[in-house]
Design a protein that fits this description.
Elements lengths: L2 H7 L3 E3 L7 E2 L9 E4 L6 H6 L4 E4 L9 E3 L3 H12 L8 E2 L4 E2 L4 E2 L4 E2 L4 E2 L4 E2 L4 E2 L4 E2 L4 E2 L4 E2 L4 E2 L4 E2 L4 E2 L4 E4 L4 E4 L2 E4 L5 E4 L4 E2 L4 E3 L5 E4 L4 E2 L4 E2 L4 E2 L4 E2 L4 E2 L4 E2 L4 E2 L4 E2 L4 E2 L3 E3 L4 E2 L7 E3 L8 H20 L1
Parallel strand pairs: 2-3, 3-4, 4-5, 6-9, 7-10, 8-11, 9-12, 10-13, 11-14, 12-15, 13-16, 14-17, 15-18, 16-19, 17-22, 18-23, 19-24, 22-25, 23-26, 24-27, 25-28, 26-29, 27-30, 28-31, 29-32, 30-33, 31-34, 32-35, 33-36, 35-37
Antiparallel strand pairs: 1-5, 20-21
Protein backbone atom coordinates (compact mmCIF):
# COMPACT_ATOMS: atom_id res chain seq x y z
CA UNK A 1 0.00 0.00 0.00
CA UNK A 2 1.40 3.38 -1.00
CA UNK A 3 1.96 6.06 1.64
CA UNK A 4 -0.16 8.46 -0.42
CA UNK A 5 -3.11 6.03 -0.11
CA UNK A 6 -2.67 5.85 3.66
CA UNK A 7 -2.41 9.65 3.93
CA UNK A 8 -5.57 10.12 1.88
CA UNK A 9 -7.55 7.55 3.84
CA UNK A 10 -6.73 9.15 7.20
CA UNK A 11 -6.70 12.80 6.12
CA UNK A 12 -2.96 13.01 6.68
CA UNK A 13 -0.17 14.94 5.00
CA UNK A 14 2.61 13.03 3.28
CA UNK A 15 6.14 14.41 3.55
CA UNK A 16 8.85 12.68 1.54
CA UNK A 17 8.91 9.83 -0.94
CA UNK A 18 5.72 7.92 -1.71
CA UNK A 19 7.05 4.46 -0.86
CA UNK A 20 5.23 1.14 -0.73
CA UNK A 21 4.32 -0.18 2.75
CA UNK A 22 3.57 -3.85 3.37
CA UNK A 23 3.25 -4.07 7.16
CA UNK A 24 3.40 -2.28 10.50
CA UNK A 25 6.04 -2.80 13.17
CA UNK A 26 7.69 -1.56 16.32
CA UNK A 27 10.70 0.71 15.62
CA UNK A 28 13.12 -1.85 17.07
CA UNK A 29 12.07 -4.61 14.67
CA UNK A 30 11.03 -2.62 11.61
CA UNK A 31 12.29 -3.24 8.09
CA UNK A 32 12.33 -1.08 4.96
CA UNK A 33 8.74 -1.96 4.02
CA UNK A 34 7.35 -1.34 7.52
CA UNK A 35 5.66 1.74 8.95
CA UNK A 36 5.94 2.78 12.62
CA UNK A 37 4.38 5.53 14.71
CA UNK A 38 5.72 7.99 17.25
CA UNK A 39 3.53 9.72 19.83
CA UNK A 40 6.26 11.35 21.92
CA UNK A 41 9.50 13.02 20.87
CA UNK A 42 11.36 11.20 23.62
CA UNK A 43 11.28 8.18 21.29
CA UNK A 44 12.76 10.15 18.40
CA UNK A 45 16.24 8.62 18.70
CA UNK A 46 14.76 5.12 18.54
CA UNK A 47 12.89 5.99 15.35
CA UNK A 48 16.00 7.63 13.83
CA UNK A 49 17.99 4.45 14.33
CA UNK A 50 15.16 2.26 13.06
CA UNK A 51 15.21 0.69 9.59
CA UNK A 52 11.51 1.58 9.17
CA UNK A 53 10.45 2.76 5.74
CA UNK A 54 8.07 5.44 7.05
CA UNK A 55 6.74 7.08 10.21
CA UNK A 56 3.29 8.19 11.33
CA UNK A 57 3.64 11.32 13.45
CA UNK A 58 1.66 14.26 14.84
CA UNK A 59 4.17 16.88 13.65
CA UNK A 60 7.05 17.01 11.22
CA UNK A 61 10.17 15.28 12.54
CA UNK A 62 13.80 16.07 11.81
CA UNK A 63 14.55 12.65 10.36
CA UNK A 64 15.43 11.36 6.90
CA UNK A 65 12.34 9.19 6.47
CA UNK A 66 8.97 9.66 4.75
CA UNK A 67 6.34 10.84 7.22
CA UNK A 68 2.57 10.94 7.41
CA UNK A 69 1.35 13.74 9.68
CA UNK A 70 -2.02 13.10 11.35
CA UNK A 71 -3.80 14.35 14.47
CA UNK A 72 -3.69 10.94 16.20
CA UNK A 73 -0.77 8.73 15.08
CA UNK A 74 -1.66 5.98 17.53
CA UNK A 75 -5.23 5.60 16.25
CA UNK A 76 -4.08 5.58 12.62
CA UNK A 77 -1.52 2.90 13.45
CA UNK A 78 -4.19 0.73 15.08
CA UNK A 79 -6.47 1.21 12.06
CA UNK A 80 -3.66 0.06 9.79
CA UNK A 81 -3.48 -3.18 11.77
CA UNK A 82 -6.99 -3.93 10.52
CA UNK A 83 -6.41 -2.56 7.04
CA UNK A 84 -3.18 -4.43 6.33
CA UNK A 85 -4.12 -7.61 8.20
CA UNK A 86 -7.82 -8.15 7.43
CA UNK A 87 -9.59 -10.93 9.25
CA UNK A 88 -10.16 -14.03 7.16
CA UNK A 89 -13.59 -13.99 5.59
CA UNK A 90 -15.77 -17.06 6.03
CA UNK A 91 -18.42 -17.84 3.48
CA UNK A 92 -21.69 -19.55 4.40
CA UNK A 93 -20.78 -23.03 5.57
CA UNK A 94 -22.18 -25.65 7.92
CA UNK A 95 -19.76 -28.51 8.58
CA UNK A 96 -21.18 -32.01 8.03
CA UNK A 97 -19.95 -32.96 11.51
CA UNK A 98 -21.94 -30.14 13.19
CA UNK A 99 -25.00 -31.22 15.19
CA UNK A 100 -27.98 -28.89 14.72
CA UNK A 101 -31.06 -29.37 16.90
CA UNK A 102 -34.75 -28.92 16.12
CA UNK A 103 -36.35 -25.56 15.35
CA UNK A 104 -32.99 -23.77 14.98
CA UNK A 105 -33.19 -20.49 13.05
CA UNK A 106 -30.05 -19.54 11.13
CA UNK A 107 -29.48 -16.15 9.50
CA UNK A 108 -27.68 -15.47 6.25
CA UNK A 109 -23.97 -16.12 5.68
CA UNK A 110 -23.51 -18.29 8.79
CA UNK A 111 -20.29 -20.23 9.41
CA UNK A 112 -20.54 -23.30 11.68
CA UNK A 113 -17.34 -25.31 12.06
CA UNK A 114 -16.66 -28.98 12.71
CA UNK A 115 -18.17 -30.69 15.76
CA UNK A 116 -20.20 -27.66 16.84
CA UNK A 117 -23.32 -28.64 18.81
CA UNK A 118 -26.36 -26.37 18.65
CA UNK A 119 -29.36 -27.51 20.68
CA UNK A 120 -33.06 -26.97 20.03
CA UNK A 121 -34.78 -23.59 19.58
CA UNK A 122 -31.59 -21.59 19.09
CA UNK A 123 -31.62 -18.40 16.97
CA UNK A 124 -28.44 -17.18 15.26
CA UNK A 125 -28.19 -13.87 13.38
CA UNK A 126 -26.57 -12.98 10.07
CA UNK A 127 -22.81 -13.19 9.48
CA UNK A 128 -22.11 -15.03 12.72
CA UNK A 129 -19.17 -17.43 12.94
CA UNK A 130 -19.07 -20.40 15.29
CA UNK A 131 -15.78 -22.25 15.32
CA UNK A 132 -15.14 -25.98 15.99
CA UNK A 133 -16.13 -27.78 19.20
CA UNK A 134 -18.34 -24.95 20.45
CA UNK A 135 -21.54 -25.82 22.35
CA UNK A 136 -24.68 -23.66 22.28
CA UNK A 137 -27.47 -24.67 24.68
CA UNK A 138 -31.17 -24.69 23.91
CA UNK A 139 -33.31 -21.54 23.74
CA UNK A 140 -30.24 -19.33 23.24
CA UNK A 141 -30.40 -16.23 21.03
CA UNK A 142 -27.25 -15.01 19.28
CA UNK A 143 -27.17 -11.75 17.32
CA UNK A 144 -25.47 -10.69 14.10
CA UNK A 145 -21.73 -10.54 13.37
CA UNK A 146 -20.90 -12.59 16.46
CA UNK A 147 -17.70 -14.63 16.70
CA UNK A 148 -17.55 -17.69 18.95
CA UNK A 149 -14.02 -19.06 18.91
CA UNK A 150 -13.24 -22.80 19.33
CA UNK A 151 -14.47 -24.61 22.45
CA UNK A 152 -16.74 -21.88 23.77
CA UNK A 153 -19.52 -23.25 25.97
CA UNK A 154 -22.83 -21.40 26.17
CA UNK A 155 -25.45 -22.90 28.47
CA UNK A 156 -29.18 -22.74 27.77
CA UNK A 157 -31.37 -19.64 27.63
CA UNK A 158 -28.54 -17.16 27.04
CA UNK A 159 -28.96 -13.93 25.08
CA UNK A 160 -25.99 -12.58 23.12
CA UNK A 161 -26.19 -9.27 21.25
CA UNK A 162 -24.57 -8.10 18.03
CA UNK A 163 -20.83 -7.91 17.27
CA UNK A 164 -19.91 -9.91 20.37
CA UNK A 165 -16.59 -11.78 20.44
CA UNK A 166 -16.12 -14.72 22.81
CA UNK A 167 -12.71 -16.40 22.95
CA UNK A 168 -11.74 -20.03 23.40
CA UNK A 169 -12.60 -21.83 26.60
CA UNK A 170 -15.06 -19.23 27.89
CA UNK A 171 -18.09 -20.62 29.73
CA UNK A 172 -21.24 -18.51 29.63
CA UNK A 173 -24.22 -19.17 31.92
CA UNK A 174 -22.78 -22.03 33.94
CA UNK A 175 -24.30 -22.69 37.37
CA UNK A 176 -23.95 -19.97 39.95
CA UNK A 177 -21.98 -20.92 43.07
CA UNK A 178 -24.88 -21.12 45.51
CA UNK A 179 -25.60 -23.53 48.40
CA UNK A 180 -27.59 -23.64 51.62
CA UNK A 181 -26.91 -25.59 54.81
CA UNK A 182 -28.98 -28.56 55.87
CA UNK A 183 -27.90 -31.09 58.51
CA UNK A 184 -24.34 -29.87 58.25
CA UNK A 185 -24.19 -30.39 54.49
CA UNK A 186 -23.95 -27.99 51.56
CA UNK A 187 -27.09 -28.37 49.45
CA UNK A 188 -26.94 -27.04 45.88
CA UNK A 189 -29.35 -24.26 44.90
CA UNK A 190 -30.84 -24.72 41.45
CA UNK A 191 -30.02 -21.67 39.32
CA UNK A 192 -32.77 -21.15 36.74
CA UNK A 193 -31.85 -17.61 35.64
CA UNK A 194 -29.96 -16.53 32.55
CA UNK A 195 -27.10 -14.44 31.17
CA UNK A 196 -27.58 -11.44 28.87
CA UNK A 197 -24.57 -10.12 26.95
CA UNK A 198 -25.31 -6.88 25.13
CA UNK A 199 -23.82 -5.48 21.90
CA UNK A 200 -20.09 -4.96 21.25
CA UNK A 201 -18.88 -6.97 24.24
CA UNK A 202 -15.64 -8.97 24.07
CA UNK A 203 -15.00 -11.87 26.47
CA UNK A 204 -11.51 -13.34 26.87
CA UNK A 205 -10.31 -16.93 26.91
CA UNK A 206 -11.27 -19.13 29.88
CA UNK A 207 -13.48 -16.45 31.40
CA UNK A 208 -16.63 -17.60 33.20
CA UNK A 209 -19.91 -15.73 33.59
CA UNK A 210 -22.45 -17.51 35.80
CA UNK A 211 -26.18 -17.42 35.25
CA UNK A 212 -28.41 -15.84 37.87
CA UNK A 213 -30.39 -17.86 40.37
CA UNK A 214 -33.78 -16.53 39.24
CA UNK A 215 -33.07 -13.27 37.38
CA UNK A 216 -30.33 -12.23 34.93
CA UNK A 217 -26.58 -11.79 34.98
CA UNK A 218 -26.00 -8.85 32.61
CA UNK A 219 -22.91 -7.61 30.76
CA UNK A 220 -23.83 -4.27 29.21
CA UNK A 221 -22.81 -2.93 25.83
CA UNK A 222 -19.23 -2.06 24.99
CA UNK A 223 -17.68 -3.83 27.98
CA UNK A 224 -14.39 -5.67 27.44
CA UNK A 225 -13.44 -8.63 29.62
CA UNK A 226 -9.92 -10.08 29.65
CA UNK A 227 -8.87 -13.73 29.94
CA UNK A 228 -9.39 -15.67 33.19
CA UNK A 229 -12.06 -13.42 34.69
CA UNK A 230 -14.85 -14.70 36.95
CA UNK A 231 -18.24 -12.94 37.05
CA UNK A 232 -20.60 -14.43 39.63
CA UNK A 233 -24.34 -15.03 39.43
CA UNK A 234 -26.77 -12.10 39.43
CA UNK A 235 -24.06 -9.51 38.69
CA UNK A 236 -24.72 -6.43 36.58
CA UNK A 237 -21.65 -5.08 34.75
CA UNK A 238 -22.13 -1.60 33.24
CA UNK A 239 -21.37 -0.08 29.84
CA UNK A 240 -17.82 0.36 28.50
CA UNK A 241 -16.29 -1.23 31.58
CA UNK A 242 -12.97 -3.10 31.53
CA UNK A 243 -12.27 -6.19 33.64
CA UNK A 244 -8.59 -7.13 33.48
CA UNK A 245 -7.24 -10.68 33.81
CA UNK A 246 -7.93 -12.64 37.01
CA UNK A 247 -10.56 -10.24 38.32
CA UNK A 248 -13.05 -12.11 40.48
CA UNK A 249 -16.51 -10.68 41.16
CA UNK A 250 -18.71 -12.53 43.63
CA UNK A 251 -22.47 -12.86 43.26
CA UNK A 252 -25.05 -10.06 43.13
CA UNK A 253 -22.61 -7.20 42.53
CA UNK A 254 -23.40 -4.09 40.52
CA UNK A 255 -20.51 -2.53 38.63
CA UNK A 256 -21.15 0.81 36.94
CA UNK A 257 -20.28 2.32 33.56
CA UNK A 258 -16.72 3.19 32.50
CA UNK A 259 -15.17 1.24 35.38
CA UNK A 260 -11.72 -0.35 35.25
CA UNK A 261 -10.96 -3.25 37.58
CA UNK A 262 -7.23 -3.95 37.17
CA UNK A 263 -5.62 -7.39 37.35
CA UNK A 264 -6.52 -9.67 40.26
CA UNK A 265 -9.03 -7.29 41.84
CA UNK A 266 -11.43 -9.23 44.07
CA UNK A 267 -14.95 -7.98 44.76
CA UNK A 268 -17.00 -9.41 47.64
CA UNK A 269 -20.65 -10.34 47.14
CA UNK A 270 -23.46 -7.74 47.06
CA UNK A 271 -21.03 -4.85 46.45
CA UNK A 272 -22.01 -1.76 44.43
CA UNK A 273 -19.34 0.05 42.42
CA UNK A 274 -20.37 3.37 40.87
CA UNK A 275 -19.53 4.90 37.50
CA UNK A 276 -16.08 6.14 36.42
CA UNK A 277 -14.13 4.24 39.07
CA UNK A 278 -10.70 2.61 38.78
CA UNK A 279 -9.57 -0.08 41.24
CA UNK A 280 -5.84 -0.78 41.15
CA UNK A 281 -4.35 -4.27 40.74
CA UNK A 282 -4.60 -6.86 43.52
CA UNK A 283 -7.01 -4.73 45.55
CA UNK A 284 -9.92 -6.22 47.48
CA UNK A 285 -13.27 -4.43 47.42
CA UNK A 286 -15.22 -5.21 50.57
CA UNK A 287 -17.58 -2.24 50.70
CA UNK A 288 -19.47 -0.06 48.23
CA UNK A 289 -17.51 2.45 46.14
CA UNK A 290 -19.76 5.35 45.19
CA UNK A 291 -17.73 8.39 44.17
CA UNK A 292 -15.72 8.47 40.89
CA UNK A 293 -11.97 8.15 41.37
CA UNK A 294 -9.08 5.74 41.83
CA UNK A 295 -9.25 3.23 44.67
CA UNK A 296 -6.76 0.60 45.80
CA UNK A 297 -5.14 -1.13 48.75
CA UNK A 298 -2.58 -3.28 47.05
CA UNK A 299 0.89 -3.81 48.51
CA UNK A 300 3.76 -3.53 45.99
CA UNK A 301 6.47 -6.17 46.20
CA UNK A 302 9.46 -5.27 48.38
CA UNK A 303 12.43 -7.23 49.63
CA UNK A 304 11.22 -10.10 51.80
CA UNK A 305 13.51 -9.34 54.75
CA UNK A 306 12.20 -5.76 54.83
CA UNK A 307 8.60 -6.97 54.72
CA UNK A 308 9.19 -9.34 57.66
CA UNK A 309 10.39 -6.38 59.74
CA UNK A 310 7.31 -4.36 58.77
CA UNK A 311 5.09 -7.26 59.81
CA UNK A 312 6.61 -7.25 63.28
CA UNK A 313 5.61 -3.60 63.69
CA UNK A 314 2.14 -4.24 62.29
CA UNK A 315 1.51 -6.99 64.85
CA UNK A 316 2.56 -4.59 67.63
CA UNK A 317 0.17 -1.78 66.57
CA UNK A 318 -2.69 -2.89 68.88
CA UNK A 319 -0.33 -2.84 71.88
CA UNK A 320 0.97 0.60 70.89
CA UNK A 321 -2.56 2.02 70.70
CA UNK A 322 -3.45 0.54 74.08
CA UNK A 323 -0.40 2.12 75.69
CA UNK A 324 -1.48 5.64 74.64
Amino acid sequence: MKLSEIAKKFNGKLIGEDVEIKSVSSPENAGEKDIVFIKDKKYLDVVKESKAGAVITKEKLDINKPQIIVSSPEKVFYSLLELLYPEEKREHFIAPTAVIGKNVKLGDNIYIGDYVVIEDNVEIGNNTRIYPFTFVGKDTKIGENVTLHPRVTIYKNTVIGNRVIIHSGAVIAGDGFGYYQEDGKHIKINHIGSVVIEDDVEIGANTTIDRAMIDKTVIKEGTKIDNLVMVGHNCKIGKNTILVSQVGIAGSCNVGDNVILAGQVGVADHINIGNDIIVTAKSGVGKDLKEPGVYGANIPAIKWNKWKKILIYLYKLPELFKSK
